[in-house]
Amino acid sequence: MIEVRRLRVLRALADHGTVTAAAEVLHLTPSAVSQQLAALESEVGQELLERRGRRVAITSAGRLLLTHADTILTEVERAEDAMRLYADGATGELRIAAFATAISLLVAPSLARLRETTPGLRLVVQDAEGHQALTQLLDGEVDLAVTVEHRGSPRPTDDDRLTLTPLYAEPFVAVLPPHHPAASGDVDLTALATDDWVMTSVGNPIRDVVLLACEQAGFQPRIVHTSDDFRSVAALCAANAGVSLVPRLTLPPTTPAAIRPLRPPTPTRRVLIATRRARADHPLITATLKTLAETAAQLNL
Description:
Blueprint: H1 4-16, H2 19-26, H3 30-44, E1 49-52, E2 55-58, H4 60-88, E3 92-98, H5 100-117, E4 121-127, H6 130-138, E5 144-150, E6 162-176, E7 196-199, H7 205-216, E8 222-226, H8 230-238, E9 244-247, E10 258-261, E11 268-276, H9 283-297
Parallel strand pairs: 3-4, 3-5, 7-8
Antiparallel strand pairs: 1-2, 5-11, 6-9, 6-10, 6-11
């Protein structure tokens, strides 16, 4: 008989790569994780892991078991949801992770509407960047995650355990000093090739999108200033410190910088809401998804 909790341990190890990381996510000690995995190997009569330095790799037998584990864990989660709904009806708490702009423009307005339309729902919000939100979703820390994918970059996940629903597509815009020569109309990116640039930090996916757009336009930007706060980016550009490209909705409603659309091809980021496939048909989740989509449709894009 295979213990379901041991399948959860195997899945956590596959997702996070080390026993220590899996233990942290599962709130167990590393030795407890190792014991659970050893017991699982005994239960199935196969070696599921092989050590490679400090990391462990999943064997072919382990990968085969994972395909079944995902199905089993999905059905267990559905059964747990069914019992909760049976016990207390369509009431409960949902946790949603989203990046700051999405909280301001999507989540907060949706929360206000849901208080009226779905009074049995308690929505708990936490700030997280897109990739962090997905990790929290897969680890079961949240029920919904607002994430992004950028034109020209891979999808945030191809994980079959998730359902992704598009909310809106957001173009990047040029942020320029007020009297910049290119500030009179739509901006051809090549016109900014000799400027100093204000850029997000290394590791921020927006930086990668901007660098790719500049490369496709035939130049490498001269990065002088760095900030991940878009108000700061706009302030630096307004102070004639440089130019930048940012997603349109990240900017404050008023700014002294010149905000101009880009001539095609325009970098774009798509904002999506993700939930675990096992819970996609939960009544509280479907109500929240519907309200988020309605709020997104009203954005000024």
